[in-house]
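Extended Data, panel c. Modelled sequence:
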Amino acid sequence: MLKKILFVFLVILSGSVGTFAQTATDTSVANVQPMLSPKELAKIKKQLKDSSWLATHIPQKATRRSALIPGWGQAYNREYWKLPLVYGVLAIPAVTYFYNTSFYKKTKFAYEARFKEQTGDSSDVAAIDPELRGLSIASLQNYRNAFRRDRDYSILWFILAWGLQVVDATVFGHLRHFDVSNSLSMQIHPQLNPTTRTPALTLSFNIKEKSKKPLAIAR
């Protein structure tokens, strides 16, 4: 009889100990896991999204896309604020090209009409632009050459602007993968040269190696 009572008592005691241990574990887990605010959760989600995007980001794609369509490489690099700058820089030589081309054609026609007038053919004089009718044939020739030169420069500047936005997309595409963590440091120290007694500055770069994890060797 005593053995039965002792057995029942041990069963009850073990159940109580198990319940107490489970309750203590749940309480400790609840204390360890901090409550995150919505702002902190949004920040963590953004960091995870950026890291996953960076893992699939290829700088060469930015170069190719920017070479095909201006601003496409900047959009691929997620630098959307550069799009107005890209199209603004390209718009300037484009507008000057159409302006110079229009006046080049007008002055060219006026010059040829005045040249034909000197040979006795005045059939095209009436079609000269009103802004150019009071100019001499020499002035028309100078204006024609100037507008043709400025038109060619506009083409050159447009090509250079296109190339610059390709370079920008390429450089900043590679900088997306540049390590700017705490492993890099730069220090500037003032120094006095004892020989010449002149002040100087020393610049030192410290690159910390990442801790190497032990390799898991299969046994």
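The helical segments are 2-32, 38-56, 59-68, 72-76, 83-118, 137-175. This feature is highlighted in the accompanying rendering.
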